[in-house]
Amino acid sequence: MRYCHAKAFIWNSQALIEYGKIYVGNTGEPFALTVGGKTLYILTTPEHVAKLYKSNEDTSWDAMLNELLVGFGVKSSVIHKLWEPMPGETIRKGRPELPASKIPNYSLIHSTLDLYKRQLLPGPRFEKFCGTLLGHIDDHLKWSTLIGIDTTQSGRPQKVFSHRSLRDLCSTVLIGAISKTLFGDQIYEIEPYLSTYLADFNQDAWMLVFQYPGPKTKLGAARTKILSALENIIRGAGGPEANHAWIVRTVMEEQDAAGISEEDAAALLLMIYWAANLNPYRLGFWMLSYILFDKELHTALKTEIGRAYRDRKLDVAFLLTDCPKLDAVYQETLRLTSGALSARKIIRPLDIGGKLLEPPSTILISFAQLQQSKSAFGVDASTFDSRRFLKDKNLKNSLSFKPFGGGANYCPGRFVAKQEMFFFVATIITKFDISLSDGGQQNFPILDSITPSLGINGPQAGMDIFVDLKLAN
Ligand code: HEM
Fold first, then answer.
1. What are the pLDDT digits (tens) for 74-92?
2. Per-residue pLDDT for 1 more than 60?
């Protein structure tokens, strides 16, 4: 199956993948699409994906990064600098915990990926990051802050926060909290509309990944605004007291040592910022949507989460380990809403499922194909079941359930994401009486499974739900 599929891919990538699967007789074997003159091999079978995740020698994400970095704003003339080995002293400075004999020979890019892990995987730096992040979510969800978001009745204390867009609520709180955790509160003094620009950027960022020279979108303007804010941070806005996360501080020091210009350094920081923001606000939207449209589930969760309060504060450890209903909603939402197409360049011929996949083609893993597979999840695999992961405790370990990817690029933010989402959803449904506006007469939003996706899909354009909130007794 090899002819030009560019239009069909951009128009509806999942439908094209479904068509390809049927074309090869539903055997699950890898098949090829030709998009923009390039061959894309599509994997839809869990065993093939597992093999790919182990094939670090034959496939590479690095080979895709250069094009992406240019899309994010790094000048092509400096790309080679990012791959040059850095002086051992610079690498050591960011990793005081490593003995001198264990200092790796990293380039700036590989060092940055390593620093992600050192910040985000469990340990003291992770604890600090999560503590700051949850603190910001809590601040954003203070009644006074929520009323502050609503300018229509400013000056008068409101009892009900009515007909609020759930999309806006999730992006304001979650993008706001991550942005402040990474760059300190000053970032919103530098760019008050940062969250809006980030959401605009995210909407069309797939065009950078798939190099789609599409119509003029908000992407370019949003990128300029975000890069300008990040350049300000690099130039020292906020002064020595600026409360940057450890990863931001350390990456900036290494960029400086590598002699990267402020402009290029801002584009590199955008990668960190974007990775952290791509998914959580959309996942929060879907989790709350499923909960609000199911009164029984909503009530059961309030009771379960109520037990996690100690002295009027949420006990996060209890929330994470002793709230199985919330956990099942989290897993099921991750399963159904991730439409990511994860890409790897083939650098050496690779046998998958008896088929030789050749360089310099690209392999795409379709998360939706894996996570909505009937053989793994049953005949109702495409519908939401809040009890699915409660009924079968082994589902989390299924080869078909990989919401955070795997192999060399396994999401290092998965532990942060769990705390962030549990805390956000738990706070909203216990601190507030939250309900659908208009007496619940609203349609459940439809997942946008048409636009090529890099993570959790948003709702279709123009779709939203509206909620009324008041402080719970
Ligand atoms: C709901 C939340 C999230 C989901 C579903 C998610 C999903 C993913 C997936 C599927 C990948 C692998 C992509 C690939 O292999 O092509 C990934 C990578 C990554 N994620 Fe997440 N993520 C989430 C939250 C986060 C958070 C909160 C952070 C940071 C604070 C983060 C940081 C990263 C980074 C840095 C990578 C790249 C890792 C590498 O290439 O080595 N993620 N994420």
1. 998 899 999 999 999 999 9
2. no
113 lines ligand 1 (CB under 6 A): yes
Listed in sequence order, the DSSP H helices in 205-261 are: 206-209, 219-234, 246-257
Q: Is pLDDT of 31 > 70?
A: yes
Q: Please work out whether the CB of residue 237 comes within 6 Å of at least one atom of ligand 1.
A: no
Name residue 164's beta-bridge partners.
467
Alpha helices in 107-149 (DSSP H): 108-120, 124-140, 143-149
pLDDT of residue 149: 57
Q: Are 59 and 72 in contact (CB under 8 A)?
A: no
Beta-carbon contacts of 93 under 8 Å, excluding residues fewer than 6 positions away, are 253
- Residue holding tokens 């890099």? 454
At residue 151 the predicted structure's pLDDT band, cuts being 50, 70 and 90, is very low
Half-sphere exposure of 259 (CA within 13 A, CB side): 8
d(CA 428, CA 468): 12
Alpha carbons 34 and 453: distance in angstroms, whole number = 18
Q: Which residue has the least CA distance to atom 11 on ligand 1? A: 411
Strand 160-165 with 309-310, pairing: unpaired
Indicate yes or no: pTM above 0.85. yes
Place of tokens 């892990």: 117
Output the six-digit token pair for 248.
């931001």
* CA distances to 140, 194, 294 from 136, in Å: 6, 16, 28
C-alpha of residue 275 to centroid of ligand 1, in Å: 6
Q: Is 411 annotated as a binding residue?
A: yes
Pocket perturbation via mutation, ligand 1, pick of 52, 56, 178, 404 by most ligand atoms within 8 A of CB: 404
Residue nearest to atom 39 of ligand 1 (CA): 409
The full set of domains in the chain, from first to last, is: 6-471 (1.10.630.10)
CB atoms within 10 A of CB 217: 13
Pocket of ligand 1 contains residue 340 by CB under 6 Å: yes
